[in-house]
Amino acid sequence: MDYSDLIAKLKEGSTRAVARLITILENDINASEAIINSIYKDTGKAYIMGVTGAPGSGKSTFISTITKKFLKKGKKIGIICVDPTSPLTGGALLGDRIRMKENFSLNNVFIRSMANRGQLGGLARATEDTIKILDAYGCDIIIVETVGVGQSEVDIFKSAHTVIVLLVPGMGDDIQAIKAGIMEITDIFAVNKMDLPGADRKVTDIIQMLEMNMNYNYTSENANKNNMKLKQWIPEIVKINSITGENFDTLLDIIEKHKAFMDKLEIYSSYLINRIKSETIQILRYKLTKKVEELIHSNKLIEENISQVVDKSLDPYSMANLIIKLIGLED
Ligand SMILES: Nc1nc2c(ncn2[C@@H]2O[C@H](COP(=O)(O)OP(=O)(O)OP(=O)(O)O)[C@@H](O)[C@H]2O)c(=O)[nH]1
Ligand SMILES: [Mg+2]
What we know:
Blueprint lengths: L3 H9 L2 H13 L1 H11 L7 E7 L5 H14 L4 E7 L7 H13 L5 E7 L7 H15 L3 E7 L3 H6 L5 E6 L5 H6 L9 E4 L7 H16 L8 H8 L5 E4 L8 H16 L1 H34 L1 H11 L5 H11 L5
């Protein structure tokens, strides 16, 4: 199929073309290959922000408020709400999207939700491609919101320049969840709902967690030096109120600071290399799995191998090695 008309319209700024292209690439990996192939040169301009936090931590409220701030600066914004836990684009997400849409003029904000509908090649790949479409469409800032904290977020956030995690005053469950893996890629911890009791305590808890996990003294003069080895960026902590917008100016300053940090040549190129590696792995995972599945169900030699595994003259690892050989991937 020829997508050049749609792509031309995308570059002219047609919202309808954006929506169509995203739907196409969610459902057909061959189409996404063709689409990404023709728009790739027009990508790489947008600033990508990942936002996550436990259910109810205020992600949607936060994104609405920060989007208004960006709009005031004349930016064009793309918002992708990703829900890895939902098999369908379900109620809450859809409700959020409608509420958020009511907040903005459609010209400068494009909102899209994506749920785990068993996308070919996975949700992270579909999100990555959607980011590229919004980038080519001309969004200055793309905000990716995900629900919960887990491995799928880590995959999705590999493409983000700045990762913001929302925590709320009160029980430490959200901090426990963060230890599961997202901490290493968090740039800014925002303690949302600072109007509720316990916000300062939460800040202390975060500092403690950082000290424990990164093995450096967060408040000492050495912090900067020690962290250079780890990530060269000390995660910043800020208290905010997403309903009133309190402290958002401080938050925006921190985002600016992180952006400046990321713009440094060596940091940016290592970010880019990591991003490309992880994206390539996502694509290969899909393509190789598909190829192996086709082989397993159709290849005569493999059928013979399977019967050998049945009668125990071959074990499953050896069979897997034979398949690797068959597709020409052996060392
Ligand atoms: N007091 C207070 N309430 C807030 C603040 N930010 C958000 N809320 C409220 O917290 C509730 C949840 O906010 P949402 O923005 O829907 O949270 P979410 O993280 O998007 O929730 P899910 O999409 O369900 O995961 C809503 O009732 C908000 O009004 C804040 O800064 N202070
Ligand atoms: Mg939400």
